[in-house]
Amino acid sequence: MILSPGTLVAVVDGETLNLFRNSGTHTPELTALPSASVPDRTSGTAGHRSSSANPDNDTQAEDGFAAGVAALLNQMALSGEVDDLVVIAPPRALGELRKHWHKALEAKLVGEIAKDLRHQTPDEIAAVIAKA
Predict the structure, then answer these.
(1) Backbone torsions φ then ψ of 93, nearest 5 degrees
(2) Which strand (E) or helix (H) includes residue 129?
(3) 20 to 30 A from 78, CA-CA: which of 1, 10, 70, 110?
(4) DSSP track, 54-105
């Protein structure tokens, strides 16, 4: 995947959000951005309750975090802080994020990668993006 310079890359899991800005032209070169404050959400999708499909409070907390990340990214898209966006998250978290995206954010989304890259360096993340 080739990214435009300035593309925002969000690496998300159930507990953390790491933001990077691409400065490369032909290959991704990621620079870490300061930590963003994620709005506090107590649960994910409305009506989500513990069950065999959603067994514990940790899962609900992860869903709530994903909803908070989506709210932050929506706000950034609506305010014009983001022109292009790539989201990298484990498949389950990515699914929860999608439920909360605003149409303005969806229009700026240039790529999704369903992987857990939370513990990877910016160079390792850039390599995964380049291969996508």
Answers:
(1) -65, -40
(2) helix 122-131
(3) 1
(4) S-SHHHHHHHHHHHHHHHHHHHHHHTTS-SSEEEEE-HHHHHHHHTT--HHH
Per-residue pLDDT tens over the stretch 45-88: 444 444 445 455 557 778 889 999 999 999 999 999 999 999 99
pTM, two decimals, is 0.85
**For the domain 8-37+56-131, what is the CATH code?**
3.30.420.60
CB-facing half-sphere around the CA of 15: CA atoms within 13 A: 4
Instruction: Quote the tokens at residue 104.
Output: 């303005």
CA–CA separation, 35 and 38 (whole Å): 9
CA distances, 25 to each of 17, 86, 106 (Å) = 24, 15, 23
